[in-house]
Structure to design on (243 residues):
């Protein structure tokens, strides 16, 4: 890599986001970690030591527009550029429709969809100025094909797909690409909530017969970061679940 590039990954204190941060660090990217809570100093130090790249932690709640502005400003102030934004932070609050409260629905939309919107809006100014940038949004197979018990989550992730395609059309002329990754079932804290019985039933529906790893998603994120002629796409990383 000529000049080191900067990657900001929201929700990168664990799970898929952390795997993306480590995979990008291994390629020499400067890394900005984020979580709604304080990013642990030990985690920052561990990535610095393992990959010998600059790493900062910028905590902030992506559902808050002011936090997003501050996160982007801190990244630009530290590294001078923002080349890759991975909108990974997300939550679930699964319930069947008849039991789902307005709060259950709204809180998931606020983080997964409005949070992604907030981050993109704040990141676009510096990216347009650079006339380059990669935006990678985490959707889900639930947003592609729906999922019982996840109407809030599926609505938010389907929204992320519409947002991705619209932003891709809007900013292509500025040299910025915007794509989505739709993971299937990936082994993280989010899916560890499922019982072993449910996990076994799910595996039987997956053509490749296993859950994916956070690293499977991280490799796809790197592919999108390195692909100037791919935009507005939704890549399913799901073992063939929704082919
Ligand atoms: N795991 C799967 O099977 C799967 C499948 C499809 C899609 N996805 C998507 O992939 C993404 C990552 O999933 P995961 O399984 O790795 O999740 P995870 O293990 O629960 O990690 C979520 C991360 O997001 C952060 N976060 C949550 N709310 C936030 C907020 N308001 N502002 C900033 N950071 C916030 C968390 O940090 P704090 O605790 O500090 O807030 C954490 O770092 C999500 O968008 C998820 O919907 C996951």
């Amino acid at each position: 890599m000529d000049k080191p590039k900067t990657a900001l990954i929201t929700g990168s204190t664990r799970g898929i986001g952390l795997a993306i941060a480590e995979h990008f660090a291994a390629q020499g990217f400067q890394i900005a970690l984020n979580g709604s809570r304080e990013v642990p100093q030990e985690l920052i130090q561990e990535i610095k030591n393992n990959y010998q790249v600059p790493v900062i932690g910028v905590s902030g709640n992506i559902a808050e527009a002011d936090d997003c502005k501050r996160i982007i400003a801190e990244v630009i102030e530290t590294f001078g550029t923002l080349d890759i934004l991975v909108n990974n932070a997300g939550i679930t609050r699964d319930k069947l429709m008849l039991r789902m409260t307005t709060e259950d629905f709204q809180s998931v939309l606020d983080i997964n969809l409005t949070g992604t919107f907030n981050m993109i809006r704040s990141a676009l100014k510096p990216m347009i100025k650079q006339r380059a940038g990669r935006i990678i949004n985490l959707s889900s197979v639930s947003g592609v094909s729906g999922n019982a018990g996840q109407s809030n989550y599926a609505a938010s992730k389907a929204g992320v797909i519409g947002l991705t395609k619209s932003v891709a059309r809007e900013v292509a002329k500025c040299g910025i690409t915007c794509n989505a990754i739709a993971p299937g079932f990936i082994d993280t804290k989010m899916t560890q909530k499922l019982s072993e019985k449910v996990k076994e039933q799910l595996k039987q529906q997956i053509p490749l017969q296993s859950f994916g790893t956070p690293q499977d998603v991280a490799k796809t994120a790197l592919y999108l970061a390195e692909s100037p002629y791919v935009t507005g796409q939704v890549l399913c990383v799901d073992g063939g679940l929704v082919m």
In short: The chain has one domain: 6-237.
